[in-house]
């Protein structure tokens, strides 16, 4: 499968990996088809994404997508952030192979889920937006076993994981 240089760069050197302490919003979703999981934590200041971090248990494309989505989201208003769509992410990555396009949905939907979580917690349930794809919104526990378990390692060098 051919990946662009940008995809490879974000896969090899993912930006904003990890988890924010005391996040304002948490989005954790799973892909019903491949079982991959993505978790995003956001910090909100003046209605903008002040900081965002991700953990992804997924394929290389999903890791590159997560990294790119966090870069695109930083500094955006919450309303702008939930409008980032899979096509924009795929374009910013220099394209994704056809079979991997669905992976870009995981990134945009994890971000939407985190913003939705913020809106729900802060008295704005009317602002909640639907996810783009058929993803399972998971209960956002502080730590998820698949992302933190020592047996799984703690980096993509030990598996297909960025955390
Ligand atoms: S194969 Fe599951 S997100 Fe890419």
Automatic annotation (TrEMBL):
SUPFAM superfamilies xrefs: SufE/NifU
GO molecular function terms noted in the UniProt entry: iron ion binding; iron-sulfur cluster binding
Coiled coil regions, renumbered to chain: none
Stretches assigned to the NIF system FeS cluster assembly NifU N-terminal domain: 3-122
Protein name according to UniProt: Nitrogen fixation NifU-like protein
Transmembrane segments: none
GO BP term, pick one: iron-sulfur cluster assembly
Segments for region (Disordered): 137-163
């Amino acid at each position: 499968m051919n990946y662009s240089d940008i995809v490879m760069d974000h896969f090899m050197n993912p930006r904003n990996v990890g988890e924010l302490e005391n996040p304002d919003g948490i989005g954790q979703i799973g892909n019903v088809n491949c079982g991959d999981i993505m978790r995003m934590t956001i910090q909100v200041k003046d209605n903008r994404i002040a900081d965002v971090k991700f953990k992804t248990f997924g394929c290389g494309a999903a890791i590159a997508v997560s990294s790119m989505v966090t870069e695109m989201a930083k500094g955006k208003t919450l309303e702008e952030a939930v409008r980032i769509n899979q096509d924009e992410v795929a374009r910013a990555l220099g394209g994704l192979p056809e079979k991997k396009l669905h992976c870009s949905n995981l990134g945009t939907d994890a971000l939407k889920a985190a913003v939705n979580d913020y809106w729900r917690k802060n008295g704005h349930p009317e602002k909640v937006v639907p996810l783009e794809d058929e993803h399972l919104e998971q209960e956002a526990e502080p730590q998820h076993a698949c992302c933190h378990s020592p047996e799984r390692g703690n980096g993509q060098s030990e598996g297909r994981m960025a955390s």
